[in-house]
Amino acid sequence: MKFNIFRRRHEVPKTSGVGNFQTPNWDSTKTVPFAGEAKSFNAEKPTALTQIPSEHVEELLQKTEIDGDPFPIDGENHVLTAETLADADLSPHYETSIGGISFNFSKCFQVQGRDACIAYVKTPDGKIKTRAYYRSNSAGLWRYCPEYGYNNGINIWFGKGYNEEALTLPPNLQKHLNAISEMGQIQLENPQTTKFCFFGTAKFYQNRRDQNIARINDELRGDYYEETPKKCSFAFSGTSEQKNPPEEFDCDKKIAPNYHQEIISYQSHTRLYGDFTTRVYPSNDGSLLYSVCETKVNGERQAWVGNIETTAPIGSTGCRTKWGYGGDFSTPLYEYRSQSGDYGDMENDKGDYTSMWKNYLSKLPLIKRYLEKTDKEAEK
Fold it and tell me: CB-based contacts of 305: which residues, under 8 Å, 6+ apart?
């Protein structure tokens, strides 16, 4: 069965190659050799996450550049500075190196009900630039925030770039950010200061319409758009309005996850999911990486694909310099009701979210193979 390429959110992404995925004839007992570009993932092996010596913090702050737009507070625009971040106790505190890029992180905090962190990243030209990272409530994974705007004059929306999956950070960054979050979070007394410190690193658009117009006209601003192409490298089908029937939705074996080759795993905790585990697998041809998340709900193992990404190099924003769209494969365990495509379990809602397990994820062949494989491993 062949599928067209659709986006689950926003408009159809432009793809530079992969499409027309067919349901394969599966034999889950066979091991497919690890091959292809995913070998480059080994080059991304991070250094240990360590605390930055106090004498180096001031040096990093002096070199820090913040190229976000002025942040509006009570009708006045304010420019975020490194001094403001330091006064808020959000100066560089931890350090690591991933893929040859130096990352320094603040302590974690909360912004609009999401875990957040300020990264100080050394760019190829030797500059230190701030990047705002936050954890998606529905996907459970960390993302970069390149822009923002106001929803209703009060709440701020997090910019999605070309696509929210294009902003999901690679596994090694995910693992470190989870570790920092588990070390404790600071509490900023003034919510407006919290928003200023986070969104002041990003570009501002008055509303989503203005951001969409800028995207269509190739006028989006910032390092992310200079490093990342508008075209996605691959796209699986699926939209929130018309999701693929889960029993029939699968991909070619060549680019499906190889559950015999776990690359990395890490633990996470969020208010929506509680404790959950993420395991990362390469595709059978080594061109993609699948982050499969798993938790237990009332004693039952439930899983979802948090992200599907390329193995392209990491840019100065922390994101891959090539991206893809996971479509219905990236359906989260708890989805916004408006994006559930009539597959939500209305008897299992959490706030604005509805469970996708009973009616969708539990029936996806990709998820069923994951549970089958890990069940066999647990029995050994």
Answer: 290, 291, 292, 293, 326, 329, 330, 331, 366, 367
Question: pLDDT tier at 99 (50, 70, 90 boundaries)?
Answer: confident
Closest among 160, 129, 122, 128 to 144, alpha carbons compared: 160
DSSP H stretches of helix in the chain: 54-63, 82-87, 171-182, 191-199, 208-216, 223-227, 365-379
- Sequence-distant (6+) residues with CB within 8 A of 203 are 68, 69, 146, 147, 148, 159, 220, 221, 222
Can you say how many angstroms the Cα of residue 227 is from the centroid of all Cα atoms in its chain?
17
Does residue 294 contact residue 276 with C-beta atoms inside 8 Å? yes
Query: Which DSSP letter does residue 363 get?
Result: G
pTM comes to 0.86
Report angle CA 297, 178, 287 to the nearest 5 degrees. Answer: 85
pLDDT in tens, 179-237: 999 998 888 878 888 999 999 999 999 888 888 898 889 899 999 999 999 999 999 98
AA identity, residue 151: N
Contacts of 320 (CB under 8 A, 6+ apart): 166, 170, 228, 309, 310, 311, 312, 313, 314
Longest dimension (CA), the chain: 63
**Choice between 16 and 322, residue whose per-residue pLDDT is larger:** 322
The answer to whether residues 314 and 170 touch, using CB atoms and an 8 Å cutoff, is yes
Helix (H) or strand (E) holding 130: strand 128-135
Q: Which of 155, 153, 144 is nearest to 203 (CA)?
A: 144
User: Distance between CA atoms of 318 and 133, rounded to whole angstroms?
Assistant: 9
Model pLDDT for residues 77-86, shown as the tens digit of each residue = 999 999 999 9
